[in-house]
Amino acid sequence: MEKPWEGRFTEKVDKLMEKFSESVSFDKKLAPYDIALSTAHALMLKKQGILKEEEADKLIEALNQVKKEIEEGKFKWKTELEDVHMNIEKRLTEILGDLGKKIHTARSRNDQVVTDVRLYTRENLNEILSLLKTLKVEILKKAKEYIDTPFPGYTHLQLAQPILFSHYLLAYYFMFDRDEERIKDTLKRVNVCPLGSAALAGTTLNIDREFTKELLGFDKISLNSIDAVSDRDFIAETIFCLAMIMMHISRLSEDFIIYSTYEFNLIELPDKLCTGSSIMPQKKNPDALELSRGKTARLYGDLMGILTLLKALPLSYNRDLQEDKIFLFDAVEVTKITIKIITEVIKNIKVNKDRALKLSKANYALATDLAEFLSKEGIPFRDAHHIVGRFVRFAIDTDKELDELSYKDFRGFLGKYKETLEKKYSLEELEKIYKDLVDVKKAINRRNVIGGTALNQVKHVLKLLEEKENLK
Asked: At CA 332, angle to CA 328 and CA 70, rounded to 5?
């Protein structure tokens, strides 16, 4: 098939080269954006008198016909035409004859493709913003459902201190909220119109780039034609933002996988998002979460792929850039479906409250409260830490939890500070203080600082976030 650029060549393109160099197998995804771009371009050429009015109108009518053929699955994609742009242009010439060739006036595939990709990226980032909002809202709803449920908090995957499950969930809200902020900021750099830069130096024709920018809904026009056709920073930045989302989803997935095990038994996952074993009838596998964790690796691969693709390209456009879309399309599609899946997980999980309460006070999780009480009483924190550490060792050796012991047991480890405390408080008062210190719910509510896990602090934050998300 005749190529639009083959005038200076004496040999036909090798069939192997055609197969090697085609991109239509994946860039046909850009067809709706390419048609929108070509329509705006035709309107601009008409406005500037570069095309006659009737020529532009016929081109736009034919573009609408091509759009309908694609939507209805009737369009014949041809790999020998290399890419989405040449396939559409060839179809225009089949419909209109030589007039179809005029659509390429005052543009190059270099500025055409990057404009298409920016339109695609803008639309999909806005869709991802919507999906993130839905996820965040579900987190808020689930946090409200379990607003006062004690839950074990971990550091180093070791039981550390009791928290509220609502406080735990809101940690992920803030991660996804930062993801939303990053995407909004990235959109500022995505929404720049490169159309009119042509191959790399602009065009001698009297085009109106401001008019095209407005028609396509861009915020700005690129101001350097060399940079405009070769810039793929916005793709790398987009994939980075998506990789961050996936990293946060992967962390949440890891937590839920662990918490849903028989050994932890802290949460129950919905059956509809799990699968069974082909050999073990009793198994309930957290496949939605494992796949979410696994697909994160693909996003990291996409990010490294785009960065590696760009790292040594000379200015301006190079054919290497054809491969950029593979990384972008994969990152976008994987992220969208994974956000949807994790939203369903959040919506349907259940907390085993009894088990969560039991683990909240296990492993001497309230030892810090004892140490901080001593510190408040004027005992240097390092000494308080040592005293409580020895007391915990005693509890381990006697196989008792802190709430199974008493101040009478504790006082033997106070050394020289015993007299200080017992001068200020009676033994009955110290016994009551001790019992309060090792009470899980009271311990949670003692962390009454901004950002802490105390119930009134979590309620306050939840109220602020509900207002931010326009929830009643």
From this structure: 85
Topology of domain 6-105, CATH: Fumarase C; Chain B, domain 1 (1.10.275)
SS3 453: coil
Is the torsion defined by CA of 203, 207, 211, 215 positive or negative? Answer: negative
Q: Which residue, 124, 137, 136, 144, is CA-closest to 176?
A: 136
Distance, in Å, from the CA atom of 56 to the CA atom of 100, rounded to the nearest integer, reads 10
How far apart are the two ends of the chain, measured CA to CA in Å? Answer: 62
- What tokens appear for 307 in the block? 């960065």
Q: Where in the chain is the domain with CATH 1.10.275.10?
A: 6-105
Question: 228, 214, 35: which is closest to 114 by C-alpha?
Answer: 228
Residues 6+ apart with CB under 8 A from 333: none
Q: How far apart are CA 32 and CA 153, in angstroms?
A: 49
Q: Which residues pair with 303 in a beta bridge?
A: none
User: Are the C-beta atoms of residues 107 and 207 closer than 8 Å to each other?
Assistant: no
What is the three-class DSSP state of 296?
helix
Domain 359-468: what homologous superfamily? Fumarase/aspartase (C-terminal domain) (1.10.40.30)
Domain 110-205+217-358 class, CATH top level:
mainly alpha
Which residues does the annotation mark as catalytic?
Answer: 156, 277
Q: How far apart are CA 14 and CA 388, in angstroms?
A: 79
The pLDDT tens digits of the residues spanning 232-266 come to 999 999 999 999 999 999 999 999 999 999 999 99
* pLDDT tens by residue, 168-199: 999 999 999 999 999 999 999 999 999 999 99
- pTM, two decimals, is 0.93
The answer to whether 180 touches 129, Cβ cutoff 8 Å, is yes
Q: Residues spanned by CATH 1.20.200.10 within the chain? A: 110-205+217-358
